[in-house]
Recover the amino acids of this structure.
């Protein structure tokens, strides 16, 4: 399996495109039992099939790029949230909040922030 950025499975994409190509060619091919001389698919059908598959591949690349960007954005948000929690935990240690809470409540609060 060949994986690119963000775990994109190129082998699976190639497999799906090949299956679609075979299905489309089979659907476009005249019935060989009734017309044996017409077993070759028409060039225009092949071109249309290839064009459709190229479009789908381009769409998959675009979607992969969008997902990679979103992944990066979400990772940055996660880092920011982790920094915020760390700061809150640090402030908790400096705040006189412990005077309002008993020891069990302080432990619960520390677990929530940790």
């Amino acid at each position: 399996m060949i994986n690119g950025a963000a775990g994109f499975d190129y082998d699976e994409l190639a497999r799906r495109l090949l299956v679609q190509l075979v299905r489309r060619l089979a659907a476009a091919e005249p019935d060989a039992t009734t017309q044996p001389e017409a077993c070759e698919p028409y060039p225009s059908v092949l071109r249309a099939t290839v064009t459709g598959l190229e479009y789908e591949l381009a769409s998959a690349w675009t979607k992969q790029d969008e997902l990679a960007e979103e992944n990066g954005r979400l990772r940055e948000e996660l880092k920011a949230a982790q920094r915020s929690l760390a700061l809150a935990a640090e402030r908790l240690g400096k705040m006189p909040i412990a005077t309002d809470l008993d020891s069990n409540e302080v432990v619960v609060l520390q677990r929530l922030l940790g």
Notes: The helical segments are 10-28, 43-94, 103-113. Residues 5-84 form one domain.
